[in-house]
Amino acid sequence: MSASPPREPGLVVASHGRHVLVETPEGRRLICHPRGKKSQAVVGDRVLWQVSGDEGSIEKVETRRNLFYRQDEVRTKSFAANLDQVLILVAAEPEFSESQLTRALIAAEAAGIPTLIALNKSDLVAPFERAWARLLPYQAMQHDVMPLSLRLSAEVDRAHLMQRLAGKTTLVLGPSGAGKSTLINLLVPGALAETGEISQALNSGRHTTTSTTWYWVDGARGTALIDSPGFQEFGLRHLEPTELAGLMPDLRQHQGQCRFYNCTHLHEPGCAVLASVGGTGAGAVSASRHRIYAELFAELSQTRW
Question: What domains appear along the chain, each with residue ranges and CATH number?
Fold first, then answer.
């Protein structure tokens, strides 16, 4: 009876459906399939795999430091695991959705992952000023916010970005038109070509977009970017409505000061959060942020099937 092949360590660097691409410590990449019916490995996972013909099988997913994901009424979408930070790229034009930005920040806060907000197109002076003003409350909450102009000052921005990204694994999120592909190609020249090759390999030769892809920024493989679609629809159904205020720094600072311990911060008398809405100075909660909170609270309070 022949011995089973040894289990080898690897890193999941791309995924498409039930197929994943695993990179060995030496840099070799091969397609692997999960053992069993359900695919559990996501990009960023450290796994143990075995040779199975020309490909491999995932035998074990190592314990994760964190997992960044979203969930709606129908399905759960896992973006990536074992992240050091999430970079949320928005632009002066087209105008970004503050609701989508808030949802991504809440998901990261729930997973214990630091965030960096980058506002692109600083060369568009008037639109940029308006967009920057919309982000002032986030800076007051101690969110890290940085300006970019990927079109006009690419090399300067590359240097600034590398200061924030060096030695880390960063998931990049952003809506259509924000410049996410430009950013990734600036930091990883040839990334789009690599994506096409990976897509074809994972999907039996057909050219499709992988759901999530890992890129090494440096030759030493110490700095990584993970590109993932899915910013437009960002469900938070994995959270309870009563958790929301604790995951929003501007609301959280007032939580213990409400008259009622189970205050929803929507209508109760003596609510410290409501008292701070629309105020100025330290501790103020913007009207738009409270509106988003109320919408999310209502969404998460709907009956769950």
Answer: 8-61 (2.40.50.140), 67-227 (3.40.50.300), 241-301 (1.10.40.50)
